[in-house]
Design goal:
Mean pLDDT: 93
CATH superfamily: Gcn5-related N-acetyltransferase (GNAT)
Largest sheet: 9 strands, mixed
Number of domains: 1
Distance between the termini: 33 Å
Strand content: 25-35%
Oligomer: single chain
Order of helices and strands: EHHEEEHEHHEEEEEHHE
Strand order of the largest sheet: 1-2-3-4-5-9-6-11-10
Number of helices: 7
Structural class: alpha+beta
Number of strands: 11
Length: 226
């Protein structure tokens, strides 16, 4: 039976297993180095949970809720094995916890951000995602579209998590609005969120700053199908 296990320390043996799985699935620039996880795991606003089966990490998810902005962010979701219902398990447990975080903060979420691979780009197409079929960007994109995610109408780029300050492409910045009738967001919402989210990375590429300045100069940004 799958267990939803919270990870709060690099010393947790399940963290080592989760980090190994991340390295097998994601490209190096998307994975924070093992030793740099100490502070994030101890941060009470960052939620890291592993799906554990018979002592092995078979999936994982990281997410957060920012009550001052009334938005959540799913940082990553990993499905390490097919045919076990891991994706559904992580979704249900994460949603239950997010509703709890809303209640505790006395706020109501406007929705959830996510960075989603665009399989039409060379960067995503050339990556194997650990040969795990559930992690294939085409499969994941269709699942997330089914869940209600739409992409923001921006040419998205983000700083690399390897602290080298490289511009990473191949993803769309997406949002799943709580109100499905929404077709646009005030640009201040994603811009404030991204400024906060990437404040942890001191080295930011010129392309990211240019994207942010262009976003902040707009009044709104459209939500497009993925």
């Amino acid at each position: 039976m799958l267990e939803y296990r919270k990870i709060t320390s690099v010393d947790d043996p399940y963290f080592a297993k989760m980090h190994k799985l991340m390295g097998e699935v994601f490209p190096p620039e998307e994975v924070l180095a093992f030793e740099l996880w100490k502070e994030p795991l101890e941060d009470p606003t960052i939620q890291v949970y592993a799906a554990v089966l018979d002592g092995e990490v078979v999936g994982a998810t990281e997410y957060r809720y920012r009550p001052e902005l009334q938005v959540a962010m799913t940082d990553f979701t990993i499905i390490g094995r097919a045919g076990l219902g891991i994706g559904r398990f992580l979704l249900v447990e994460r949603e239950k916890h997010l509703r709890q975080l809303e209640r505790e903060s006395g706020t109501t979420s406007l929705g959830m951000f996510a960075e989603i691979y665009d399989p039409g780009t060379e960067a995503a197409a050339s990556h194997s995602f650990g040969s795990l079929q559930p992690m294939n960007p085409v499969v994941r994109r269709e699942v997330l579209s089914h869940l209600g995610f739409r992409k923001l109408d921006i040419d998205y780029v983000h700083p690399s998590w390897d602290h080298e300050g490289k511009a990473v492409r191949g993803l769309d910045f997406c949002f799943r609005p709580a109100d499905d009738s929404l077709t646009a967001l005030p640009s201040s919402l994603p811009s404030r969120f991204l400024r906060w989210y990437y404040s942890a990375l001191p080295n930011k590429p010129r392309e990211w700053e240019e994207m942010m300045q262009a976003l902040e100069a707009r009044e709104s940004v459209a939500l497009l199908p993925i």
